[in-house]
Amino acid sequence: MQEPEEKKIALELLETEQAYVSRLHLLDQVFYTELMKEAKTGKTVPEEVVKMIFSNISSIYQFHAEFFLPELQKRMEDWNRNPRIGDVIQKLAPFLKMYGEYVKNFDKAVELITAWSEKSPPFQELIADIQKRKVCANLTLQHHMLEPVQRIPRYELLLKDYVRKLPPQSPDRGDAEKALEMIFMVAKHSNAAIAEMERLQNLWVVYQRLGLEDDIVDPSNELIKEGPIQKISTRNNSTSEKYLFLFNNMLLYCVPKVIQVGAEFQVHLRMDVEGMKVRELKDTEFPHTFLVSGKQRTLELQARSGEEMNAWIE
């Protein structure tokens, strides 16, 4: 008799989980433990750096090795009597939120490995030495570290497939569908954590370019658009190069600094978006111009093209 499709997928989940746990073992019990031991001697890198590289890998490893894998094994041994995995995955799903921290830290971890490998030859040698072992299968530490980042999407795919192949009257249908929904929410949570971190990093870079002025630095701000613009002076019919940063709550009208030490721009004017009016100006002498009038003052600005003007107005 042929195995039912859903059992094949459940077995694939178990097999990939076994391989995944050995990868986590390698990261936590080999790389992390040995690098930490060397760091304690003070010869390679500070202990803090090793901790930053591996983030919360130990908790992730323990969870999978001591809880999820054994539960899954028990369930598959008992499959003929009790063909279901949905409830086990429901127990797993909330713990996957732990991955948010690891995933968010991943890029920084890879940067640290590169930077410290250049700074500390003994650190580089130790990593190279571990990478030569059979258990590493000729792959780098960075490659192994990517595995937890890819694990949640993998669960999602396998479980989607499992739900699709379940017979309509299967006792596992309700649980499996609920488990899939939970995994989907966790995957979204982990992506949202990455997106939020990227937003804050980008925002911080913008604040540095603006000289970190106290009244501007606010983590809840959202940068919508930035770019060079010509300011029209009606007094002497000339234009001068300025730079705009448009946030969700304010428009910063800046002047590029000639000597770029520290900040790149000087904020000349800050206008509140609330109550601001924007309209196109039909000016034959200065094409692509628009007027921005706010509580603070009114600016007559010229964009480089019609598209650019429309993008700013928009």
Automatic annotation (TrEMBL):
SMART domains: PH, RhoGEF. The keyword Repeat applies. SUPFAM superfamilies: DBL homology domain (DH-domain), PH domain-like. One of its GO terms (molecular function) is guanyl-nucleotide exchange factor activity. InterPro entries: DBL_dom_sf (IPR035899), DH_dom (IPR000219), FYVE_RhoGEF_PH (IPR051092), PH-like_dom_sf (IPR011993), PH_domain (IPR001849), SOS1_NGEF_PH (IPR055251). Residues 5-193 form the DH domain. Pfam families: RhoGEF, SOS1_NGEF_PH. One of its GO terms (cellular component) is cytoskeleton. Gene3D superfamilies: Dbl homology (DH) domain, Pleckstrin-homology domain (PH domain)/Phosphotyrosine-binding domain (PTB). One of its GO terms (biological process) is cytoskeleton organization. Residues 222-314 form the PH domain. Keywords: Cytoplasm, Cytoskeleton, Metal-binding, Phosphoprotein, Repeat, Zinc, Zinc-finger. It is found in: Cytoplasm, Cytoskeleton. Its main location: cytoplasm. This is FGD2 protein. It comes from Oriolus oriolus. The lineage of its organism: Eukaryota, Metazoa, Chordata, Craniata, Vertebrata.
